[in-house]
Amino acid sequence: MSVAHDTITGDQLGIRKTREKIMSDFYWPGIYKDVARYCRSCDICQRTLRNETSSRVPDVSSQTRDDPDVPLCEAVIKDYDYEADRGHVQDNLTGDEQGSEDLPEIGTWGQKEDAADVKFGGALTYDQNRVLQMLVQKFSEIFSDRPGDTNLAEHRIDLTSDIPVRQTPYPVPFALKSSLNKELQQMEDLGIIRKSDSLYASHVVVVKKKDGSNRICIDFRRLNKITVTDPQPVPSPAESFLGMSEDKYFSKLDLTKGYHQIRVRPSDIHKTAFVTIGQH
């Protein structure tokens, strides 16, 4: 991947062209994800801002605009083809029954799920379903899409070098600055991050999620290179399934932002410092 993307012949191409160049001679399972991950973490590509242009809304036809029974705002909405331009299902934005009431904005960290959203298997009997509902109700406070905080473990960061890892921040596209600052402020309000004067400083990378929202990631690759790794092996999936061979009931729990639910050892917190434009 480095030869196909980073060298002179690679020319820092995008994900699709880099993948096509590799697949002309090589293939392995997961190549699509590997190439996408490699290109998105490229230092040079992160420093290069894309020139994004917005599509212009076509002018309203004179026939529609001159109709006295059609408000001008409604004429613009009807004339603009949202389906062709954005690939979205066109909503009925002009219905009179919708009114003009402004909807409250829900932040990224605002709670939108609770115990009432827990789903139970359809094969359970009435008594089994009742027992599970009572159990969920008893611990209802843990069923939330706001990250919690465990006291069962701490994350240690033991390093092989005492020289601080210090990097200059990546440039942030102007269109993402407001979203980035808002997300950082919400994380600070929740106690996940705080202002720092640490000598360590890692990059911030903004990653677009499938639902269209942004995820803030920290590029800890340089810190990981000097981190003492844990030699304890991770249990294989086969061993885990073998240990559940005699069990009858299975539950799947997805931790909300589980990465943020494990505290860092106080003496190591300064090593996780990150930097972005105007903030540290």
UniProtKB/TrEMBL annotation:
One Pfam family this sequence matches: Integrase_H2C2
Domain Reverse transcriptase: 207-276
Top-level taxon in the UniProt lineage: Eukaryota
CDD domains: RT_LTR
Gene3D superfamilies reported in the protein's UniProt record: 1.10.340.70, 3.30.70.270, HIV Type 1 Reverse Transcriptase, subunit A, domain 1
InterPro entries tied to this protein: DNA/RNA_pol_sf, Integrase_H2C2, Retrovirus_Pol_polyprotein, Rev_trsase/Diguanyl_cyclase, RT_dom
Occurrences of domain Integrase zinc-binding (ranges): 3-48
Name the record gives this protein: Reverse transcriptase domain-containing protein
Species name: Elysia crispata (lettuce slug)
